[in-house]
Each structure stands twice: as C-alpha cells, then as structure tokens.
Amino acid sequence: GENVEQHPSTLSVQEGDSAVIKCTYSDSASNYFPWYKQELGKRPQLIIDIRSNVGEKKDQRIAVTLNKTAKHFSLHITETQPEDSAVYFCASTSGTYKYIFGTGTRLKVLA
Amino acid sequence: DTEVTQTPKHLVMGMTNKKSLKCEQHMGHRAMYWYKQKAKKPPELMFVYSYEKLSINESVPSRFSPECPNSSLLNLHLHALQPEDSALYLCASSQDQRSEQYFGPGTRLTVT
After folding, report:
1. What is the pLDDT of residues A75-111, one digit of tens each?
2. What are A's interface residues with B at a Cβ cutoff of 8 A?
3. What are A58's strand-pairing partners?
4. DSSP E strand stretches across chain A
5. In terms of CA atoms, which chain A residue is nearest residue B50?
6. How do residues B81-107 score in pLDDT, each as one tens digit?
7. 20 to 30 A Cα–Cα from A58, which one of A111, B8, B65, B74?
8. How far apart are CA B101 and CA B58, in angstroms?
9. B73: contact with A, CB 8 A cutoff
C-alpha cells in the first residue's frame, strides 16, 4: 500500500542553525504534500504545503522542495528558534481523501 | 471562522459505557475526518465523510460508529471500547480531497 518514509526521527540543532527533514512517498499519483507542526498536547497545524506542479515553495524561514522523479520532498527551516521545537509530520495524498502521514520528526532547537 | 471545535476535551469511560465525541466546523468544508493518534505516532485515519456520505472506513472496529448529521457536524459514537483504544481522537476538515486539513484540538480518551 501507499506509505511515506520520514527521516530523521529526531533532530537536534543549535539555535540559528538550519534543519532539514526529508520524506519519500511511494504513490506516484500523489499530488499534494503538506507539512504539519505538532507541539506537545496540541493539534497538528499546517506550516507549508506544495503541489505536484511546483518544485519549491518558500514562506519566510520555511521552505519545501519537491522532486517528483525521485518521489522526495523536504522541509527546510532556516535560522531556527526555540519555538520551532516540536514534532513535524509530512504527508501526501493523491486526491482520494486519504492523507498518508510520515512517522514524524522530533525537532529540538537548543538555545 | 477557520476553526474546528471538538467536545469533550477529555473523556474517561469504562469498557461498558456508551459515549459520543463531537466535532463542528463552519468553514463550508465538504470533507470531514476522524483520526486516532497514539503518543509519539502520526495521526491514523479512521473515517472520511465527503458531502455527508461515508467515503472511507479504514477497517475500523464496529465499536466505533461515525455519523455526519449535516455538513458542519461530525460525531463518533463509542461503545464497548477496549483499553487499547485510549488515544487522542482528532477531527479534521478540508475543502476538498487535496487541500489543507484543519484539525480540531482533539479529545483525549482514556478507557478504563
């Protein structure tokens, strides 16, 4: 079945450094790729998303890149801050209402 | 209003109880979802309603029974649950099948 692999499972960076989280999807029909941030005890919240007709999207310190050939997409956070510490989930969907989530990355930004 | 609300926030129930979880959105979204999330795991899809019709049931045990009374409301009826059903239950909605999902705050369910 469809799945999304996410790496790394944990990531520690110094404040101000960059963080990169990578996902690989299996369903070649996937066409929408959201990234969610979930703080402890809170709901997942969308931080950025990308569609299959776009290779890169940026929103201030956050960017997402998509390589459809390799079925990879990545989240890039620059100038990390302590408030970026959370669990990040990637997801993909091919438009069937089924959103496949990655296993999550616990990001720790060390002050 | 870009919010999905869920009640109750917390629920403790015995294995013989019947309870219901409620979810509401007023964004005009046509798809609504129930997810189950265990600690340190991603959300796991349970059910999807599209235009008030059940379109996906991910082989969820019959002790979980979804209901969509109208386009703004989604319920999850619980009966004879097991301790392993203890989890955070998240409701979400989206405009269509490939749009941003808005999640509710969840109901923390404990089955004793």
Report:
1. 999 999 999 999 999 999 998 899 999 999 999 999 9
2. 31-32, 34, 36, 42-46, 49, 51, 87, 89, 93-99, 101-104
3. A63
4. 4-7, 10-14, 19-25, 32-38, 45-51, 56-59, 62-67, 72-77, 86-92, 100-101, 105-110
5. A97
6. 999 999 999 999 999 888 999 999 999
7. A111
8. 18
9. no
Residue contact B97–A97, C-beta within 8 A: yes
Q: Answer for the pair A107, A87: CB distance below 8 angstroms, yes or no.
A: yes
Residue whose tokens read 């299959």? A52
Please tell me the distance from the alpha carbon of residue A63 to that of residue B112, in angstroms, as a whole number. Answer: 44
Distance CA B90, CA B35 (A): 5
Pick from B40, B56, B104: CB nearest A98: B56
**Residue B66 pairs with which residues in a beta bridge?**
B76
Is A66 in contact with A58 (CB distance < 8 Å)? no
Q: For residue A97, give the nearest of B43, B48, B104 by CB distance.
A: B48
